[in-house]
Amino acid sequence: MPRLPACLSLRRLLNARRREARSRVIGLGCIGLPTAAIIARANCQVTGIDVSDHVVDTINRGEIHIEEVDLDGLVQGVVQRGTLRASTQIVPADVFVIAVPTPFEKDGQHTPDTSYVMAAATEVAGVLKKSDTIILESTCPVGTTEAMRDLIAGLRPDLKLPGQTAETPDVSIAYCPERVLPGKILEELAHNDRSIGGITPRCVRKALAFRANIDDFRESPARFIAASLAREFGERVQIVEPYAGELPREFEGTGAALVGHDVFKAVPAEERSHALIYDTRGIWPDARYSAGQIGLRLAS
Predict the structure, then answer these.
(1) d(CA 117, CA 138)
(2) Is residue 98 within 8 Å of 128, Cβ to Cβ?
(3) Residue 97 bridge partners (DSSP)
(4) Which of 30, 132, 240, 273 pairs with 51 at a CA distance of 20 to 30 A?
(5) Residue 70: which of 194, 188, 193 has the closest Cα?
(6) CA end-to-end span of the chain, whole Å?
């Protein structure tokens, strides 16, 4: 009996479960509302959270408060169907998507203001339970996801957070930034390739399981390209995972080197000896070489 492609098998498995998932989208602006509507269109139960009574009342009437192509009809449809509602009060869920603004500070240095992200994380922390997933979709500077994790850890010492425990964490935290253009947001939210990063590999898998319900899911070829190169070039390929806890099965027996992010970052770029590096974000070459030189360097 022929095997189903991995992406098709995963989609069928996830589709069977998605109606059970309850989602909360925090922030119902130009990204949050389309995101909530797209999730609701996939038959997930969604509550959008916003601080504005006007925004909440408008959405609950099946109307919109922003301009975006085709969004009005989609919101009207999912509100009428009962898969989307809005509220000013956050309530327990299975998945929390944070899509709040991250404007620049007024300091003349274009410093990102992540206070809205931290405020949203504070609200989420109050209703978190074991097995929940938090996905940050706001555009944020490096380190924001871990800062959010640390904030939640301080507010909820009863929960084991990823990267802070040797046991299986109670909560998964991931970063999946949006990359869309106004006027094409609905199309691009559904069809654009998405980058998903997590504090641990398990966090990535949990976020992927959720996004695969919603997006035009295509499994990234990055892992399989890197595995093919690893089989040919062995230890000259390096695999970077957040805590070096798991060797991806595609790399087993290849001899590829496996290190954690902390070890990898501690080695200066000029001292790295590997021509190709694979991590949860995809494939990227040694910083000293262009992509066009990688094949030559591996073969040399």
Answers:
(1) 8
(2) no
(3) 25, 135
(4) 132
(5) 188
(6) 42
Token match 């922003």: residue? 66
- CA dist., res. 132 & res. 282, Å (int): 25
Cα dihedral value 102, 205, 38, 42, nearest 10: -160
Name the residue with tokens 């398990």.
202
Asked whether the beta carbons of 176 and 145 are under 8 A apart, the reply is no
Structural contact between residues 113 and 102, judged by C-beta atoms closer than 8 angstroms: yes
**From 3.30.420.270, 3.40.1190.20, 3.40.50.720, 3.40.630.30, which CATH number describes the 6-211 domain?**
3.40.50.720
pLDDT at residue 17, rounded to an integer: 47
pTM above 0.85, yes or no: no
Q: How many Å apart are CA 180 and CA 68, to the nearest integer?
A: 12
What does the domain layout of the chain look like in residue ranges? 6-211, 222-299
Report the relative pairing of strands 172-175 and 133-136 from DSSP bridges: parallel
User: Which DSSP letter does residue 183 get?
Assistant: T
HSE, side-chain direction, 13 A CA sphere, residue 188? 12
Per-residue pLDDT at 222: 59
Report whether 47 contacts 26 (CB < 8 A): no
Phi and psi based region of residue 281 (left: phi greater than 0; alpha: psi -120 to 50; beta: remaining): alpha
| 25 beta partners | 48, 97
> Domain spanning 222-299 has what CATH number?
3.40.120
Q: At which residue do the structure tokens 């959720």 appear? A: 210
Q: What share of the chain is helix, strand, coil (3-state, %, to 5)?
A: 40, 15, 45
More confident residue, 251 or 120: 120
pLDDT at 15 over 60: no
CA distances from 142 to 74, 132, 145, 148, 175 (A): 34, 23, 8, 12, 10
Strand residues in 166-229 grouped as ranges (E): 172-175, 197-198
* Residue labelled with tokens 């620049």: 104
